[in-house]
Amino acid sequence: MRVAVVGAGYVGLVTAIGLAELGHTVACVDIDERKVAALNRGEPPIFEQGLQPLLRRNLGTGLAATTNLAGAVQASDLTLICVGTPSQSDGSIDLSFVQQAAEQIGSVLAATPSFHAVVVKSTVVPGTSDQVVRPACELSSGKRAGVDFGIGVNPEFLTEGQAVDDFLRPDRIVLGGDGRTVAMLRELYASFADVPIVETNAATAEMIKYASNAMLATAISFANEIANLGSAIGGIDAVDVMRGLHLSRYLTTPLPDGTSVTAPLSAFYQAGCGYGGSCLPKDVAALVAKGRQAGSPVSLLEAVTDINDRQPGQIGDLLRRELGTLQGRQITVLGLAFKPDTDDVRCSPAFPTLTMLTEAGAEVTVHDPVVGPELLHGVGDVAYVADLADAVKHADAIVIITRWDDYLRLPELIARLDPPPVVVDGRRMLAKTSVPRYAGIGL
Questions:
Q1: Rounded CA gap, 269 and 219, in Å?
Q2: What distance in Å separates the CA atoms of residue 168 and residue 275, rounded to the nearest whole number?
Q3: Domains of the chain
Q4: Which of 358, 383, 355 minimizes the C-alpha distance to 368?
Q5: Contact present, 423 and 435 (Cβ < 8 Å)
Q6: Residue range 421-443, pLDDT digits in tens
Q7: Could you say which of 12, 87, 273, 353 would form a disulfide bridge with 426 (CB–CB 3.0 to 4.6 Å)?
Q8: 28 annotated active-site
Q9: Which one is catalytic: 28, 82, 279, 347?
């Protein structure tokens, strides 16, 4: 199929490259001329495993980047809206970019004689496609949705750090909208013959995306609440508690050959210093705001957010327990990205941790194997050190924020240091006996 993808951000770029890899002809549209030029040189603006090779393999054949939205839509059968939906101060999402894209697409459809499907792939609150996208397209095109053009929803389920694999090996495909649009989307993903497909209306498809992310956020906050309670009681290790939880039939399934398989969801039932990224915090906040607007408050999700917002404070509590005052202490923070295998720092617990340390008068050093010092602007007097061994060699304490594999070297590096620093493991990634002085969340 011929596809226009509007928005070359994280979702749009992975989607455009993935569809080209599947054999479709894709135009990736963005208003940023520098980004478009870089893409056409084979240089993606984000770090994501496996993305650059696929970009370079498909450029000039099935994939091109452009600033010409009208030309891309006119030359396509289907347009995917993948623009940003940033949070507003009350937690609700800003739909202005979605509405603007819909209006621009509708203007192009005014002179397009053939049926064209307009599909929202951006994460939008339930009702957006019917109440915002449909009227915007109808008004600017002068045509009728469901008759002259289609409106649909096709939410993404991409995990940063493994987004390419998630796109090319999906666990499910959700298609919402009118019958003709859903049929076109079914054709778009026809190569995924064995993947379960949910076909529904637009609002339900939109809710499936939010429910999926809310479930993951709830699992993380639940694990952290149990870990914090265990710490308060004493004598309890949250790692062992969660290991016992993972072995339940709900998360680990025995196989006929005597082996067993553990559900990937178990990875979210782990104690740590909190979730971050562009999806979970924003999506939970958007559902909370939508609940208030609809007169149906979602108190469970409000609690999920409150627990997560407080969780970086556990790092400060552990440091003070081990060091006493933080004033003048040399503390190395390991990890700026909100999770490994990505350079995304949005809502990362690293930043409230850095703020807490600098305000307490600590001398702070930061290391991350992918994220550079340019993203530290505005967080206070913090030194960035690119070499891990150099970053930790003078530390009184080392704080692990991101579960990078590089940090598995810490026991070896610390063995050379005298006296050894205390390791505050915000991800419980190291064995508690692997270093002389260990403090971990939920221990």
A1: 6
A2: 25
A3: 2-200 (3.40.50.720), 212-310 (1.10.1040.10), 313-440 (3.40.50.720)
A4: 383
A5: yes
A6: 999 999 999 999 999 999 999 99
A7: 273
A8: no
A9: 279
